[in-house]
């Protein structure tokens, strides 16, 4: 399903700069949900507001702490937003997922620090040719891919860092 794209501008939402306010972003996401036949309940709206307040990657547990919505509502809403292309998921090395609101550049990859958990978005996707080759070799119609790299960030590699060598 096509992801939701918000306009570029001065307000920060999900780590991206948007021309729209959080209220307008909320209305855009609610409209996208309703257009696809999903109800926007008060609990779901609270989850959306909590997500829109996050400047960077976040966990579902962080959203739960910020809202009175139940655990099931938070996880179902996060899953739905992923399915609709509104959120992306980043898997940390320990298997815990983090999420981020997708902005104007929908598809991207991540580098995750195994020591501090910092997540950095990669602007370029250099595997387009590989995806085409894989599709040709297997006969699959490739619908997407997910690529994350793990390592130690520059800060964690500094000798002064408590975990440094």
CATH superfamily of the largest domain: Winged helix-like DNA-binding domain superfamily/Winged helix DNA-binding domain
Question: Strand count, sense and closure of the main sheet?
Answer: 3 strands, mixed
Please indicate the count of domains: 2
Pattern of helices and strands: EEHHHHEEEEHEH
Identify the strand order in the major beta sheet. Answer: 6-5-7
Class from secondary-structure proportions: alpha+beta
Distance between the termini: 46 Å
Task: Write up this protein.
β1 (8-13) and β2 form a beta hairpin. The chain is of the alpha+beta class and 165 residues long. It has helices at 22-35, 42-52, 60-66, 71-83, 128-138, 154-157; strands at 8-13, 16-18, 87-91, 97-101, 109-113, 119-122, 148-151. It has a three-stranded mixed beta sheet, with no helix packed on it. α1 (22-35) crosses α2 (42-52), α2 (42-52) packs across α4 and α3 packs across α4. The protein folds into two domains: 1-104, Winged helix-like DNA-binding domain superfamily/Winged helix DNA-binding domain (Arc Repressor Mutant, subunit A, Orthogonal Bundle); 107-165, Ferric-uptake regulator, C-terminal dimerisarion domain (Dna Ligase, domain 1, 2-Layer Sandwich). It is built from six helices and seven strands. The protein is globular, with a radius of gyration of 18 Å. Residues 1-19 have low confidence and may be disordered. The termini are far apart.
């Amino acid at each position: 399903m096509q992801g939701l794209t918000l306009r570029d501008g001065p307000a920060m939402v999900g780590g991206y700069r948007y021309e729209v306010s959080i209220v307008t972003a909320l209305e855009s996401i609610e409209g996208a949900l309703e257009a696809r036949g999903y109800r926007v309940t008060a609990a779901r709206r609270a989850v959306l507001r909590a997500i829109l307040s996050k400047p960077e990657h976040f966990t579902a547990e962080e959203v739960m702490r910020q809202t009175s919505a139940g655990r099931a509502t938070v996880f179902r809403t996060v899953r739905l937003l992923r399915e609709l292309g509104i959120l992306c998921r980043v898997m940390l090395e320990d298997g815990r997922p983090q999420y981020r609101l997708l902005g104007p550049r929908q598809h991207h990859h991540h580098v995750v620090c195994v020591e501090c958990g910092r997540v950095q978005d990669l602007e370029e996707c250099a595997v387009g040719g590989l995806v085409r080759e894989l599709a040709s070799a297997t006969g699959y119609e490739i619908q997407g891919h997910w690529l994350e790299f793990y390592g130690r960030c520059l800060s964690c590699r500094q000798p002064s860092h408590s975990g440094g060598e």
